[in-house]
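Lab manual, section 2.4: Encoding a predicted structure.

Procedure: take the sequence of the chain (75 residues), apply the prediction step described in section 2.3, and record the output as structure tokens. A sample record is shown.
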Amino acid sequence: MSQDASVRFEVIEERYFSPHHMLIRMAAASLFQAQRHTPIYLREEHILTSIVMSSLAIEALCNAIGYRVVEGWAD
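Recorded output:
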């Protein structure tokens, strides 16, 4: 496909994307896997994944609502 500058895109459906929901689900799934009877090295990997996904979910949530509640959020 050629790189034509006149190519345009049509938005068929617009929807709200909230990454914090996806990230918290991933954190919960990792925590569930860590709670299963798995070898210790796998348990630690799942726990670490859960912690990282939780922190990313918190950041995404702050970004989603920060501009509404914090004056000067864009700065």
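Check your result against the sample. The chain has two helices and no strands.
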